[in-house]
Design goal:
4% of the residues lie in helices and 37% in strands. With 229 residues, the protein is mostly beta strands. It has a domain at 1-11 and 41-90 and 118-170. Strands 2, 3, 6, 7, 9, 12 and 14 form a 7-stranded antiparallel β-sheet that branches. The protein is globular and about 45 Å long. The relative contact order is 0.28.
């Protein structure tokens, strides 16, 4: 798996972010509740902080919806995926540096298997940070439900090495479909196959002293991601 190929810090055993990580912007999709049909959807407001999420597909037949999240009521979902289609998240990092991202992502059995993570400061020119994240199929033992979060669905990335993201009036992140014809279950990507994302969180990487405490204290000093209300 290439899930953490470019990360400096990765939390793979628990669906958590490090204690002390200050949230800048977060989408939980509980009050925004995406819905619509067409190639594009936009203006999905963040629940915490200021920012907008959107999506763009080649197909005008795409359905955007809000099925069960990872341990919560809603997520951001779409079908009819093709290479280059994406989810996008835009915010500001003015006053902040040492940026990190965390999010949950899953696909149906006939949904996409791989996504690139890319960033931009102008919304036009994007740089790939990680190529072909492996997204797990939404099936047992990793099936999403309203009541229980699936730790294996979590991605965490330390982007503090990307100076351009510091103190920027606008930053953009895209999860870009890069599966070719391969589905999450290892079969063929289907038109009705879906991918969904939840708890997309832009935050500040904790100070080194915080990680020293984590090393000494273990999982007891890790904070579970803020649950949705």
């Amino acid at each position: 798996m290439k899930k953490f190929a470019s990360t400096l810090l990765a939390v793979s055993c628990l669906s958590v972010i490090p204690v002390g990580a200050q949230t800048i912007t977060q989408w939980t999709f509980e009050s925004s509740v995406p819905a619509g049909t067409g190639a594009a959807i936009g203006s999905i407001a963040a629940e915490n902080g200021v920012g907008t999420a959107s999506g763009l597909h080649a197909s005008a037949a795409t359905t955007y919806s809000s099925p069960a999240g990872n341990g919560s009521t809603h997520s951001f979902s779409a079908n009819t995926w093709a290479t280059g289609d994406y989810f996008q998240f835009q915010s500001s990092t003015v006053g902040f540096s040492n940026i990190s991202l965390s999010f949950d992502q899953t696909s149906s059995g006939t949904g996409p298997k791989f996504f690139d993570l890319a960033y931009s400061t102008d919304g036009s020119t994007f740089t790939t940070f990680v190529s072909q994240n492996t997204v797990l199929a939404n099936s047992s033992p990793n099936a999403w439900s309203v009541g229980t979060a699936v730790p294996a669905a979590n991605f965490y990335y330390d982007l503090s090495s990307v100076a351009a993201l510091n103190n920027a009036s606008s930053v953009y992140f895209r999860l870009i479909e890069n599966s070719g014809t391969t589905s999450a279950s290892g079969g063929v990507l289907g038109t009705g196959g879906t991918d969904r994302v939840d708890n997309f969180t832009l935050a500040v990487v904790p100070e080194p002293s915080t990680f020293a405490l984590i090393g000494l204290g273990g999982a007891g000093l890790l904070a579970f991601r803020r649950r949705k209300n």
